User: Fold this.
Amino acid sequence: MSRRAPAAVDPHRIHGAPGIARQDERIKVLSDFLAECPWRSLTAAGLSRRLVSVLDAWRQKSQWLEIRLHWTQDGV
Assistant:
């Protein structure tokens, strides 16, 4: 599941591909979330919303860290 969720929202994914590479860091993010969440008690729609929210939060944090890294390199 943690490989299929990012593939479902990945705009660069090849149509029909079932998942993403095992090295994709989003897999760990989602695996950690699923380990802590009683996801089997959620509806498919509810779980989908939560997975997308987790991915969105990860993406925003990742972008912010990238901005901070550029500031550090530029001496800001």
